[in-house]
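ugh ok so i messed up the first submission bc i forgot one of the chains. this is the corrected input, ALL of the components this time, i swear. 226 residues overall. if the numbers dont match what u have on ur side tell me asap before i send this to the collaborators (the ones from the other lab, u know who)
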Amino acid sequence: EVVLTQSPATLSLSPGERATLSCRASQSFSTYLAWFQQKPGQAPRLLIYDVSNRATGIPARFSGSGSGTDFTLTISSLEPEDFAVYYCLQRTSWPWTFGQGTRVEIK
Amino acid sequence: EVQLVQSGAEVRKPGESLKISCKASGYTFASYWIGWVRQLPGKGLEWMAIINPHDSDTRINPSLRGQVTISADKSISTAYLQWSSLKTSDTAMYYCARPETNTAMARYWGQGALVTVSS
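and heres the new structure output, hopefully the right one now
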């Protein structure tokens, strides 16, 4: 099973600041990594798929990068609606696994 | 418009059985895998199982093997998740989702169904 470790667990930032979220995998893979945003009481929302592709309707301030075992989600300038929990997901091998999440909170 | 509409919240006692559903619309149901994701209270996400409605090929997370059954009825475009004997530890929010093939994309999700198991 591919274990994904996200860091930090919590990120305290102010609107307008840059957020950098990390997702480290226990095994190397190249493509099938996605990022989701989840707000309280809502289903996860796809932000990024296949490492760096923005899903339909996702603002350009969200970007994904990485390869091998290290992947990053960057939010270039936080908007008030971006404060939420973010999860990475690997679909390179079954069982598909999520990271434990990073909470982005208002400082 | 693709939609996944789940059945409502359920309350059961330990040892009881349960089947929850996810009705798909807006696409050809048999052409896409569909699956279930669990979220324990206050915790993260876990992909439980997936099924190909075309031929009922399934994958179950090894951590859950024997505990749940996934099925689909392509005649009514509906996927199911079933327990024969619930435990209190099954209390969680359950989401259905449609994973695309040959990509990490999973854009379509149901609204979630809260299952509470309590004596």
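quick check: Chain A touches chain B at residues 1, 31-34, 36, 38, 43-46, 49-51, 55-56, 87, 89-91, 94-101 (CB under 8 Å). that seems consistent at least. The mean pLDDT of chain A is 97.
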